[in-house]
Design goal:
Length: 424
């Protein structure tokens, strides 16, 4: 998936979140209009004012606000990806507050007007601007603030001209309320917009991580992959004890000479796949494929105490998988394979090698060399699996191994005690 597709997927998730937030705003809208209707009714009854046509007009308008709010919600559901729908919702919310205050001015006494239109109206506008951040749009929040301030100053001018409100600090308090509306809208919009950017960035980052995890997981076991990606494994080099397994196909060169390239590549892929499954099932790491050779490590980069036993068990399963693979090859009239496995346990230098642009995780040391020589020594003994005494000491005693004559290996100054599982 390319970057454009990733951004489109993230944007789609944001739009879905906006829809959920708009539902919260809608519920708040209905609650406010319902509260205003109840408050006006209670206020009129408290002050003992008679039920008249004007009061019914206020009640009907408040009820119409509730119904209109329902219709607005339906409109938004149909046009939730349209900027026009969002601006229309904000405009109508503020217009409702403005009109409702004017109606109250003409239908109620001054005391009731001051109680039901001054502070409550500001609180409603304050709430409208505070909730604007849920739409994840700073420009929309600023528009909401400007429209709210315009409505607030319009009501103030109306009160000053009609002398409805005689409070000496009316203009000062109006400016103060205007600054509060601008401030809360800007902060809410900024937080919402920042959250949107953060969500998109996090979404893209998580998709990238999942891609890397999935790709990296094709080369190593999930446990090793997670440890490396989490930064728990030092990749710049460390000395540690591990068990190295080397496997190599016997008589492979004649097979290559007598077979076509496509057949060789396909056969190698089938063989490597079967062997890799055995290695990974026992928590090993296939370090590299060199020609027809497999180099695998146990106990690094993720440390474990039973790495020697895991390597031996993996070798046994590799032998079993090869037998099954050969059965299928024989049925198809193909030549069966035979491989040789060498295993040795000891200290290795594990870390990234290669170039800076193309690093490669590898093991360096005599342990690797001895494992390779043991693999070759199977030719001398006619066996399939040979492992050293260092490995034998670290595997359970119930595993019956046959001891062979000490091996003198090329490049190794002292004889190496060796064991095999063949005919044990």
């Amino acid at each position: 998936m390319n970057d454009k597709d990733n951004i489109n997927s993230a944007t789609k998730s944001i739009l879905e979140e906006e829809r959920k937030n708009e539902r919260l705003i809608h519920l708040a809208r209905i609650s406010v209009f319902t509260l205003v209707l109840i408050m006006m009714s209670v206020s009129r009854l408290t002050f003992g004012e008679e039920l008249n046509v004007r009061f019914l007009l206020v009640s009907l308008f408040s009820a119409s606000c509730i119904v209109t709010g329902m219709l607005l919600w339906r409109f938004y559901n149909d046009h939730r990806h349209s900027s026009l729908a969002k601006y229309l919702l904000v405009t109508l919310d503020i217009a409702f507050v403005f009109i409702l205050v004017l109606i109250v001015r003409y239908t109620m006494s001054r005391d009731i007007y001051e109680m039901t239109s001054d502070i409550p109206a500001f609180l409603v506008l304050f709430m409208v601007n505070a909730m604007s951040g849920l739409r994840f749009d700073l420009r929309l929040s600023i528009y909401s603030a400007v429209a709210s301030v315009a409505a607030l100053f319009g009501l103030t001018i109306f009160d000053l001209q009609t002398h409805t409100m005689s409070h000496p600090y009316l203009i000062i308090t109006t400016f103060f309320k205007g600054f509060m509306l601008l401030g809360v809208a800007f902060i809410s919009g900024y937080i919402g917009t920042s959250a949107k950017k953060l969500v998109i960035h996090d979404y893209l980052e998580q998709r990238e991580k999942r891609y890397v995890r999935d790709l990296f997981g094709k080369y190593v076991t999930p446990e090793i992959r997670d440890q490396i990606l989490a930064g728990h494994i030092p990749l710049n080099g460390e000395r540690t004890e591990a068990t190295v397994l080397i496997a190599d196909l016997g008589d492979f060169t004649p097979y290559v000479e007598e077979s076509n390239p496509e057949e060789v590549v396909q056969s190698l892929r089938e063989y490597f796949t079967a062997m890799q499954k055995a290695v990974r099932r026992h928590k090993g790491l296939v370090l590299q494929y060199v020609g027809d050779e497999i180099e695998a490590a146990f106990g690094t980069p993720v440390p474990c105490t039973d790495h020697a036993n895991r390597a031996v068990q993996a070798a046994l399963e590799m032998k079993k998988n090869l037998e099954q693979l050969n059965e299928a090859r024989v049925r198809l009239g193909k030549r069966p394979f035979r491989h040789r496995i060498g295993i040795h346990t000891g200290e290795v230098l594990a870390g990234n090698t290669g170039s800076e642009d193309q690093p490669s995780y590898a093991l360096i040391g005599d342990t690797v060399n001895i494992a390779s020589r043991l693999q070759e020594f199977n030719k001398m003994t006619g066996t399939d699996i040979i492992f050293s005494a260092a490995t034998r000491e670290k595997i359970p005693g119930h595993i019956h191994a046959r001891k062979l004559e000490p091996a003198r290996l090329k490049g190794i100054s002292h004889p190496v005690e060796i064991f095999t599982l063949d005919d044990a």
